[in-house]
Amino acid sequence: MQYLNNAFVQFFEFLHRNVTSLIPNQNISYGIAIILMTLIIRIIILPLGVKQLKSSLIMNEIQPEVKKLQEKYKKDPQRAQQEMMKLYKEKGASPFSGCLPLLIQWPILIALYYVFNNLSGINGVSFLWISDLAKRDIFLAILSGITTYLSTYFMMSSNNSEQAKQTQTMNIGMSGFMVFMSLGFKSALVLYWVVSNLIQIAQTLVIKRIGSKKNTSPSKA
């Protein structure tokens, strides 16, 4: 983990040096470097992210079928589980797809926490409305909660199933937790999280749009 932390420190310093060569103003260059780093990280994990997102969207679409199987085999839970696994395999979905983004993001967040905690250059540096990237910002913390909620909301099914309601409740809880956590982090790290969520939202909307076009194209023929 220490190797990963050091690699992130060196990578961020490299990015910041290059941004500073174009934009000498530290109040802009540090924020831009954080946004650039976020974009690069999201591009690197894009293949995994797209795979996970498609799987999650499929899981949402097949929930009515899952519910039917649960009702059909409610007296035989083992058979119900077997039939659901067959359905997941047939549709190319995974019941654990929702865990993948967190599994990917947490090591990165831990590494960036180390980066910004050991980066003295951001002390007193402002960006946009943020007065100091080395201190907490309440509005940015609220944004982290909102964007965390939206990044999952757009992946959710539009049906009113019990599972959808449970997912909604968990989503609200996670968003509140992120606001609480963000109040204890430096704004530099929270800025990364907010930008990463915004990219995730855009990615979800694009993939859903492409998927809906594919689904409607045969009817137009």
What is the element string, with H for helices and E for strands? HHHHHHHHH
Structural class: mainly alpha
Distance between the termini: 54 Å
Considering DSSP H and I runs of 4 or more, what fraction of the residues is helical? over 70%
Domain module count? 1
Which of globular, elongated, flat, extended, rod-shaped describes the shape?
Answer: elongated
User: What fraction of residues sit in β-strands?
Assistant: under 5%
Low-confidence stretches: none
* Spatial extent as radius of gyration: 21 Å
GO cellular component, one term: plasma membrane
Family: Belongs to the OXA1/ALB3/YidC family.
GO molecular function, one term: membrane insertase activity
Domain Membrane insertase YidC/Oxa/ALB C-terminal: 30-209
